[in-house]
Amino acid sequence: MRSCAEAVLRRTGAVLALLLGTLALPGPVLAQVAQGATTLVVPTPPGGPIDRVARIVAQGLSSVLGEPVVVENKGGAAGKIGVQAALRAARDGHTLIAVSPSIASVNPVVDKAAGYDPLKDFDPLGIVAFNDGVLAVRADLPVTDMPGLVAYAKAHPGALTYGSFGVGTSLHLQTEELLHTLGITARHVPYKGEAQAMNALIAGEVDMMAYVTSPIVPFVANGRARALAATASTRWAALPAVPSFAETGIDALRNYTYRSWVGIVLPAGVPAAARQRATAALREVLARPETLKALEAQGFAPVTPDAETMRRTVAAELERNRRLIAAGGISLE
């Protein structure tokens, strides 16, 4: 069992290292990229879900467009630094932005100084992948299932802690919504990205993460973390022994799900011809078997990009998050 888990860990690390190295150029080199190059801005640090998808997509776009497509990580301030920088770039179709619910439907609700309106300032090309995950706890937390977690929280009020990607991110709001649904509390400990939050969980610095994705798999396999439930409506193929929320036996979770996504947008105002070029290229990339295989290997479910579907998804999530904030109980300090 240990050798198998270690092999999985080595393979996962190798794949992640390869992806992190793909098309990632330092700042001075970026300035030397030819004018025909395209920049795909990732408003988060390297290693998180948006970054992993962006690097796979960028590699495919480079092949389809016949020009360099460079991933540029501009993390900070829950994504607004990268988004604002991308929106200041020339509206010529050579700047794309990779976004997630945190960027597109949470930050504009919780941060009055976000500096962008996703329904006005983004021209969506489409969601390219959904991301499944699990609720996980540190290995030595004395719970083995969701009912046990609820019982522990109620027996130790105020003792539990949870990690997230940062204050006001989608995971922060989603975790608070889940805690409210379960009737329990936990103290929020924000980190700069998924990798940092997951490392804190593995190290025992926090008790739980309500949604953690494929990098957790080898750590569950080798016993350094414990997965209690898949957050989607069905079990996650990467951890098939872990029950879904609906299977936990908790009535409040019978119809409760959380599934994140990654999408690609242009800044609004790009000429129609440039938009059509980007749309066609992205669709071709997502139709390629090698792209689908690479995304699935990273724990993502690829989808055909569709602008209107993404626009409706963002609008619905914005409304859901506004209602959640209006209901109170979430500290954004």
What's the arrangement of secondary structure elements?
Blueprint: H1 2-21, H2 27-30, E1 38-42, H3 49-65, E2 69-73, H4 80-88, E3 95-99, H5 101-110, H6 118-121, E4 122-131, E5 134-138, H7 146-155, E6 161-164, H8 170-182, E7 187-190, H9 194-202, E8 208-212, H10 217-221, E9 225-230, E10 260-267, H11 272-287, H12 289-297, E11 300-302, H13 307-326
Parallel strand pairs: 1-2, 1-3, 6-7
Antiparallel strand pairs: 3-10, 4-10, 4-11, 5-8, 5-9
Helix pairs in contact: 3-11, 5-13
Descriptive notes:
The protein has 333 residues and is of the alpha/beta class. The protein has two domains: 2-130 and 260-326, D-Maltodextrin-Binding Protein, domain 2, CATH 3.40.190; 134-253, Periplasmic binding protein-like II (D-Maltodextrin-Binding Protein, domain 2). The protein is 44% helix and 18% strand. Strands 2-1-3-10-4-11 form a six-stranded mixed beta sheet, with helices on both faces. Strand 6, helix 8 (170-182) and strand 7 (187-190) form a beta-alpha-beta unit. Helix 3 packs across helix 11 (272-287) and helix 5 packs parallel to helix 13.
Termini separation comes to 44 Å
The neighbouring-strand order within the major sheet is: 2-1-3-10-4-11
The helix/strand order is: HHEHEHEHHEEHEHEHEHEEHHEH
> pLDDT average, as an integer?
87
Biggest sheet descriptor:
6 strands, mixed
CATH class of the largest domain: Alpha Beta
- Structural domain tally: 2
